[in-house]
TrEMBL record:
Belongs to the elongation factor P family. Involved in peptide bond synthesis. Stimulates efficient translation and peptide-bond synthesis on native or reconstituted 70S ribosomes in vitro. Probably functions indirectly by altering the affinity of the ribosome for aminoacyl-tRNA, thus increasing their reactivity as acceptors for peptidyl transferase. GO terms for cellular component: cytosol. It is found in: Cytoplasm. It holds the Pfam family Elong-fact-P_C. CDD domains: S1_EF-P_repeat_1, S1_EF-P_repeat_2. GO terms for biological process: peptide biosynthetic process. PROSITE patterns: EFP. It comes from the Bacteria. Its main location: cytoplasm. This is Elongation factor P. Keywords: Cytoplasm, Elongation factor, Protein biosynthesis.
Amino acid sequence: MKVIASSLRKGNVVELDGKLYVVLTAQNFHPGKGTPVTQVDMRRIADGVKVSERWRTTEQVEKATVDERGYDFLYEDGEGFHFMEPETYEQVVASADMVGDQKAYLQEGMRVFLQVYEGNPIAMELPQKITVEIVETEPVVKGQTASSSYKPATVDNGLRVMVPPHIGVGTRIVINTEDNSYVERAKD
């Protein structure tokens, strides 16, 4: 299916020279003089090679049709990351380089959106917020509550998060997966 280059977004799959690429970043540039262009950084699905392309924003690009649906994360082993489709119980295995640094957020039973092309997962979208538990943080210093200062904390998946001073070890909090920021104390 042909689409104009300016409509490409992160996670889209593009067919170029008979090979498939997953879009990592897409930016539209509109210079004061000259033609507006779309700069796209992509990863070739077959071997993981990163490529940069630049198209005029009105140019037609071949977008591959990809099956995108929710999958539940099961576990990780030497083969890769195992996901299961909740209605058909069909399982797919994602490679470690496809999951990349998003692996820290994966929790057993978590629902993620996978883009699957011919039975192979090629891109993953995490939920925007996840709940984690604080395993290490500095103790509260009396009199520190007047200012809105945040303190560093380590959560159960190994990430470092800045939290308000009243949050202690063992507290469950909600964080944003896009930038590791503290959202709120967990309701459970």
